[in-house]
Structures are given as C-alpha cells and as structure tokens.
Amino acid sequence: MAASMQKISSHICQLCKRRYLTFSYKRSSSNSKSKPWKSVVGLEIHAQINTESKLFSGAENKFGGPTNTQVSLFDAAFPGTLPVLNKGCVEAGVLTALALRCTVNKVSKFDRKHYFYADLPAGYQITQQRQPLAVKGHVDYCISDKNSFETKTANITQIQLEQDSGKSLHDEKDRISLIDLNRCGTGLMEIVTEPDFSDGTDASAFVKELQKILQTIQTCDCKMEEGSLRVDANISVHKSGEPLGIRTEVKNLNSIKSVSKAISFENETRSFDNEIDETVPMRDKEVKTDYRFMPEPNLPPLHLFDSESVKTVSSKMSVINIDDIQQKLPPLPEDTRKRLEQQYSLKRRDVAVLVDNSGLVDYFEDVMRLSPTTSAKLVSNFIINQLLGVLNDRKLTIYKCPVKTEDFGKLIDLLHTEEISYSTSCKVLDEMFEHPNIAPEDIVDQKDWRQISDTQVLTNICEKVLEEHPKLISKYRKGKLKYLHTLVNKAVIDSNNKANPRILKQIMEDLLDNK
Amino acid sequence: MLSLTLKEAVHKLRDGSITAKDLCEKCIERLNKTQQLNAFITETVDVSRDSAAETDKRRRKSKPMRWRKLEGLPIAVKDNFCTTGIRTSCATTMLQNYIPPYTATVVQRLQDEGAYLIGKTNMDEFAMGSGSVDGIHGPVRNPWKYKFTSSNLENQQTKPIEQVSMRNYHTSTDDWHIAGGSSGGSAAAVASGVCFGALGSDTGGSTRNPAAYCGVVGFKPTYGMLSRHGLVPLVNSMDVPALFSKTVDDASILFNVMAGHDVHDSTTVTDEFNHFTLPDNMNIKDLHIGIPKEYHAPGLSKDVHNAWEEAADMFEKAGAKVTQVSLPHTQYSILCYIVLNCCEVASNMARYDGIEFGHRAANEDSTEELYAATRHEGFNDVVRGRILAGNYFLLRQNYEKYFAKAMQVRRLISEDFKKVYASGVDILLTPTTLTTAPTYKWFTERDNRTSSEEQDIFTQPVNMAGVPAISVPSKLSTDGLPIGLQFIGQNFKDKELLTIAKWYEQQVQFKQLNLDYLDNVS
C-alpha cells in the first residue's frame, strides 16, 4: 500500500496541470434508503485553440517544442508587457460556439483570476469569468453499445476564452521544480456543459462527439494524450427524486476511456491516475482558494458584429463578423449523419460508424460517386465489416488505404452481380491490398475465382451429386430437410467452391422436390 | 546653453550653431554638478556621448539626410520605463538589477527621432508615492532653493552604469524641499537643466505634482494617446506616460513624437494621430473656463489660492468667460482612487515571485517559502501594505462592497467631467497642489498614505476620468518656491488643452530656475 501511495503522489506531481480547485459541498440527506443512487455529471472541457500563435502573444504555439523556446516576454510576465488579443483565437472561438449552437455574446469581457503557481508567471490567468464569449448551446450525440443505439442532446452552458498555464515538473528526489512555459499563454476554449450526463459512458460519448466537431471545424486538434483536449468532470450523486448531493470534481481526464472509467469511480475531488485506474484526492488544502477576480484592465471589451451592425463600424481596424463565420461553418458530424441517412437510406447505426471514423464518409461517398448504381447498403456494410477490419489488421488509416475507391466500387459490383461470392470478395479485398494496381476483376480472373451462376452447369453438378447419394435423397424426402444443406455443400465442393451458393441451393431444392 | 528650451536646442542643433557633442558635455557636466539632487538612478553618459558623436557625424556627411525631429537631444526617462540593456529598477529591491530585454514604445519613439537617453530617473518604489522619497535609492531633492555644497561638487567623475547606486543623501543638515512624486527625478532633471525633456508616468498626479513643485511643465495626455507598452504598471486603467519640459511648446513637440496607436497596447486609440503644432496667437474670447468649486479644499495655501485667482482674472480680462462649475463627486474620488489603486497593485505585483526575473530570495525550501521570502525582501512597506489591502478588497465577499462600488463612483466622477464639458465649458482651471513643495522634514513626518491623499487631491480625479491635464508654472510663492496651476481638458482634445496652457504660459512669463552658476564652481 505504501509503495502504491508513493507512486500515486509522484504521478500527480508530474501531471500538475496547474489549477487550484474550487468546489462547493452540499450535504445530501440520506433517508429513503430504498431508492437507488444516481449520478449526474457535468463536464468542463479545455480545448487548446489550434492557432499559429498564442492567445495574447506572438509566441509560437506548437506541441513538443524544446523546453522554453516558445515563450514571449508577455508569456513570462515581464514587467510592462501587455496582452494583445489574437484575432485568430477569437474567430476559432466563435466558430466553435456556432458549431455548438451557442448564442455568441456581442460583447464579452476578460477577467484576471489570481492564484500563485510557478507555472503561472503573472500570478493570474486571463479568462472570461463575468461575460463569456458564448452561452447556451447544445450538441446531439450518439451512444451505442451492442444492444442499444440512442441519440441524446447535451446542453452547453458557456464557452470562454482563457490562457493555458505552463507546465511544472517536480523532481521529488532532488527537491527541485522545473518549469516549461511553452504552453503558457496558449489559447484555450473552456467549454462548460450542464449536468446532463448520467454516467461515464454517456459523458464519454459526448466528448467523442465534441472531438469530432472540433476536428471537423479545425479549431482544436483534440489530442487528449498531448493535452490539447482535457476534461474535468463534476459529479453529483443523489437518490432519485432528491436534490443533487455532494459535488465532486475529477480532473485531468486525458483519454476518452479514462473519462468513462473515472466517472464511475469517485467520491470527492480526485485526480485520475491512469496507471491504477482509480481516482485519488488532489490538493484538498486549496479548497478555500479565493481567486480574487478582477476585470482585466489592459484589454478593452471584445466587440463582435453581425452583418447588420458591422455597417456602423467606422474604424479601419479589422472587425469580426459572426455572420461571416457562420458561412464558413462546414457540415458537422450530426449534419452528415442526417444527410447520409436520407440520401442513401442507410441505418443510423451504420451511418454513425462511418461518421465516427475519420475519412470513412469521404471514402464511402467517393465509391458511391464512381459507381452510382451500386447498393449503398452493400458498400457501407462492406466498408464497416470488412474494410475497417483489414485496415486495422494492417494498422492503416483510411487515408493510407491502398485500395482505390474506384476499385472498391468494382469489387462491390462483382459481389452485387454475384460474379463472386461474399467469402471470395473478402479474399479479393486482401489481394487488392497486396496488389493495389491489379483491378479486382483481373484478380478474380487470374485466381479463377469467378462464381458459377450458369443454371445448366449448376444443374449438372447437382444431378451428379444426387446420383451419387441416393440415401440422402430418401432421407430428405422423409422430412429430414437438413440433408439439403449436406447435399448443397457437396455440390459446392464439387464445383471447386466456385458455385453460386444461392442459385445452387435453389436448383438442388427444385431437383429434390420435383423428382 | 542649458537654459535653452527644447525647441530652441533642436533649432540650434539643426542649423549647426551648436554641436551635439558640446551640448552633451554641458549636460553631463550639469549632471555631475547636481549629483546631490539624487535625480538619477542610472546615468548613461557613455550612451549619451556615443549618440551625440553619431549626430555630429550625420551632420558632417555630405549627402542630404533626414534631420530627425529630436536629433542630438538628451532626455531623461523615469526608471519605470523599460530600456533595452539599461537597468530599469523602479526604485525597488525587487528589480534592483533588472535589465529589460526590450524598450518601451514611448522611449523607442523618442529615440527613433534622434533623442538619446542621458539617464534613468529616481522615483518612489514602483511609483507608489508622491514625494519621491520612498525609493531604495533615497529621496530626490528639489533644486529650487537647494544649497549646493561646493565640497560635493569637486572631482565629480561620471560613473559607469554599474557603479551608480545608493548615494550619500543624508549628509545635508539643511532641510531641503522635496521634488514631489512619484516622478520627482525627471522633474528635478529638467528643472536643473540636465536635459530638455523627460518622461514620467502619471497615475494619480505623479507627473503634474513634481512638475508643480519643481517649476516645470508636466503634461498628462488623454488615456490611450500614449502607449503603456514597456511602462511597468502601477494602475493599468489610470497609468499614462507623461512628460516634463520647460515650456508647453516643448511638451507638444515630445507628445507629437510619441502619440498614436501601438499594436502592443490594446488600450491605445486606433484612429490615426494627426500631428500638430501649437499656434503662437490664440483668441481667448470664445473660451469658457470652468473653476470647479470643490477644488477650494481645506489646506489650500494662500499663495496657491492667489495664483489661481490671478489666473482666472487674467483669462477673464482677456475676454474669456470664467464661471464656477461643480464636479460634485470630487470628494469621493480620493477614496475610490485608493481602493482601485490597491486592487490593481495587488494584481500587478503578483508576477514578482523571483522565478522568471528580478530579486530571488535564498530560501528555496519550497515554492511557497521562496515566494514569501522574495516578496518580503523585494517590496517596501508601502507596496506590501497596498498588496494586502488590494487582496482584501478583491476577496469574493468584499468585491461588491469595495471594488465594484469604487468602479461605480469612478463612473460618476467621469460623468461629472462630461457634464461640465457638455454644458459648454472648454477647460477647467485648478491648482495642481495644495501648497508649494514641502520640506523633506515635514513630508517624512507623515506616512505614505496620508501624504498621497493630500498630494493627489487635485490630480487623481483626472486619472479616474482619463481626461488630459497639464501643470504649468505660474509664479513664485512669497518664499520663493514655484506654484503650478492645472488645466484639465476634454478627452482627446490634447491639442486644445496645450494651446490654452501655452497662452497662459505666455502671459505669466515664468522664469525658469537657472543653475548656470554651478558651471563656474570648480
């Protein structure tokens, strides 16, 4: 136990994702023992804005640069330096707000949030406490498991722009702290949700959808393992019908899996430890930290315009027009799902899989464009059930898929017209990965895999089998119908596995029933 | 040569009647002769000599070249403006050896027009004070009525930057007058003829107050006209880079060089700045001067009161309309100013933790202990007191009661000015200070807060409202000390303010302090 605790504490230190914590405690009444406990989860998500430079300085904004090489004087809080708002970050924030169906505030303001920490050089973080960039949005997302599939809506409370902190590394052995300010001042969008989630699966499904949205609009690369998307969860446990109970905060959830796991395991404010999959208490001394919020005096209020109000602006300074940004909003995952459902009459569940996997929709639609007469259902099934598997086996993404969409369409055509069987089509797909320059029909020809669908040929094969197995015929005719299957199998083997099983079975059945 | 105005010096340098080298040497000599004033924290005589030589070289070049607006002109800069490679101490232990890697925009703009830095001037620690007595380098002495002791004048050698530090400033037994503050060093430098213009900062009166006490012009432009980039902040929402000069015209020249938008400071105005020169003749007849009745404050000395009255009469006689006006919320201004000042100080001082720059204590047992020791050693009592008060005002349970309330009253004070101007008043005329420069002995008997309240009484409402104001020397008091009067203008009407101030200056013909006799002391 002691060893394990030590491991935990040093792990927390190395994480040190800045931030002291505030959380309010409410004692829940504990009567009505009969009712089951329910949890309610709200999320605070920090998404690093995908811009060239930081929120208030011109310093470069890349992950993994050499330590302390992306630090402007402002980032290091040198006296006399002032924040200059990065227009790109505001545009990214507005685009995100629109994608999350939020109301964008025409005027938002910046505040200072004070706390002492070595990776926060100014002693305060510039954030938007009083008047955030955007409020009141919602996101539709899908939850699925083996048995169920459901579409839910999560409500967004607000989106605010704020600075990220630097990183501290504590060397417990030598008792020194090292600070890297590369991340310090990077623009963050803090996305706060209502407590709308019932459990970890629910919350992680939302985070997945959010990731897809942000990646689609390219405002955040959402690499949780690099910390560009970080999730804090506020969890309240209560008995159904009673007010929400103790609110607990779980921080530093840096993968979808940990979001799901952590929320299922918590009690007070915890830091989630990936290695032991348990939550551990974090910095409880900081409970009473008062951030002493104050308006940021060096930044005028952020004014945003629409196409109407922009006409009144006389200043030559560049303004941000929300309506212009709305125009730039690409189709979001939910839009794509709805469109695919309608356009191709696909099942929502299948559509969800296509949309979930980056690049798959484009691949699918490219196939459909090149072979418009192909069955969309067959294409999507084959992509989901076969292509994805082969890609996974070969550790490839769809973007690196050697099989051209044109050839893929031809393969599906061969399957659709019953030139080849389903099992053959899988073998052809494997061959196509090995020899991407050979067309599928050529592979089929070379391998002599073409299916025999000629009824005369098949009738001959069937008749031959029946002649050889009179006992099976009589058994079948006495009502043991399973012998049809045995006979068909024998015929398939006689055809060198080339017979079209559907037609073969039909012929065999006819022969048996008519004789 | 040192009695010239900036405008005259610029002309003579341009037409070649004086060389930059001669001027530079004169200034350095005066700098050495006035060491006892303790006006400078860091002297940059090597930089000065190099720059002057450069100017003379430019002149000798046969090819026609652009003669920059301030070519070959020495200026002094308060030690809270960052200067690349030159120590910027803010008169605090915390930044005692801090050498900034960048230059403040306003300083850069002066340098881009050919001015050079003769030194960084003394001040109150982090500009918190109104006497220039609360800095680690000791108090600044007012050159007026100062008895220079000849023994101290002998063998004064210019010192390289590194060696200039604490001076022996407690030797004088005579009780001398303070220079005012917090930009007292810059005021004393201009008054004593060491330079032709100087930068100060003005948060509650820190430029106008020492200007009045030292008998020079002190101009605080409209908030947002001059960039604060590189000015170590006191109260961001009130800090304005300000300037000292011998005449209003000189102030106008310096202002025009520095004004305009700066991408590094989002609070500077984005409209293009229209450069101006002040007219020599002004029709005063259409002018409406307001005399705010609230400025008849207790403690206003008879001399200052008389000077104020005479000025009002002077305008009236010249045909201007002079009426009494009311700024009803003035009485609440100083308290609100203190609250807001402490809050921003608490916030702005949070960065001094000894991690990235500045003083770092030896105690490295833990990050918290390092912070505590660094901040205890690095800040004086005044700074620590304001940090404590500011953090108290900003606590969640106090925010509405103090900070929010003070912001509301600030708006009312701002409205007061707007209403008066909307009623047709062009400009307000007030005293700059209650009295002439007090003696060091008298001043130091009071604590920093009490004296700040008294000293800033007429000046800080201007910062609360952001409007421009200028202190112009009026006359000498009966005991021979300069009296300054303050003109308060309307937002972004800096030119109009300067024009009226210039008219007044022409009428009173205030005689600058002349320390030329020091040149003859060996």
UniProtKB/TrEMBL annotation, chain A:
One of its GO terms (biological process) is glutaminyl-tRNAGln biosynthesis via transamidation. GO terms for molecular function: ATP binding; glutaminyl-tRNA synthase (glutamine-hydrolyzing) activity. One of its GO terms (cellular component) is mitochondrion. PROSITE patterns: GATB (PS01234). It catalyses: L-glutamyl-tRNA(Gln) + L-glutamine + ATP + H2O = L-glutaminyl-tRNA(Gln) + L-glutamate + ADP + phosphate + H(+). It is found in: Mitochondrion. Belongs to the GatB/GatE family. GatB subfamily. Residues 362-512 form the Asn/Gln amidotransferase domain. The keyword Cell inner membrane does not apply. PANTHER family: GLUTAMYL-TRNA GLN AMIDOTRANSFERASE SUBUNIT B MITOCHONDRIAL AND PROKARYOTIC PET112-RELATED, GLUTAMYL-TRNA(GLN) AMIDOTRANSFERASE SUBUNIT B, MITOCHONDRIAL. Allows the formation of correctly charged Gln-tRNA(Gln) through the transamidation of misacylated Glu-tRNA(Gln) in the mitochondria. The reaction takes place in the presence of glutamine and ATP through an activated gamma-phospho-Glu-tRNA(Gln). It is an enzyme of class 6 (ligase). Subunit of the heterotrimeric GatCAB amidotransferase (AdT) complex, composed of A, B and C subunits. It comes from the Eukaryota. This is Glutamyl-tRNA(Gln) amidotransferase subunit B, mitochondrial. Its main location: mitochondrion. Pfam families: GatB_N, GatB_Yqey. The keyword Protein biosynthesis applies. Keywords: ATP-binding, Ligase, Mitochondrion, Nucleotide-binding, Protein biosynthesis. Its EC number is 6.3.5.-. Coiled coil: none annotated.
TrEMBL record, chain B:
GO terms for molecular function: ATP binding; glutaminyl-tRNA synthase (glutamine-hydrolyzing) activity. SUPFAM superfamilies: Amidase signature (AS) enzymes (SSF75304). Keywords: ATP-binding, Ligase, Mitochondrion, Nucleotide-binding, Protein biosynthesis. Allows the formation of correctly charged Gln-tRNA(Gln) through the transamidation of misacylated Glu-tRNA(Gln) in the mitochondria. The reaction takes place in the presence of glutamine and ATP through an activated gamma-phospho-Glu-tRNA(Gln). GO terms for biological process: glutaminyl-tRNAGln biosynthesis via transamidation; mitochondrial translation. InterPro entries: Amidase (IPR000120), Amidase_dom (IPR023631), AS_sf (IPR036928), GatA (IPR004412). It catalyses: L-glutamyl-tRNA(Gln) + L-glutamine + ATP + H2O = L-glutaminyl-tRNA(Gln) + L-glutamate + ADP + phosphate + H(+). Subunit of the heterotrimeric GatCAB amidotransferase (AdT) complex, composed of A, B and C subunits. This is Glutamyl-tRNA(Gln) amidotransferase subunit A, mitochondrial. It is found in: Mitochondrion. Its EC number is 6.3.5.7. The keyword Transit peptide does not apply. It comes from Mytilus edulis (Blue mussel). GO terms for cellular component: glutamyl-tRNA(Gln) amidotransferase complex; mitochondrion. The keyword Mitochondrion applies. Residues 23-149, 175-498 form the Amidase domain. The active site is at K78 (charge relay system), S182 (charge relay system), S206 (acyl-ester intermediate). Belongs to the amidase family. GatA subfamily. Its main location: mitochondrion.
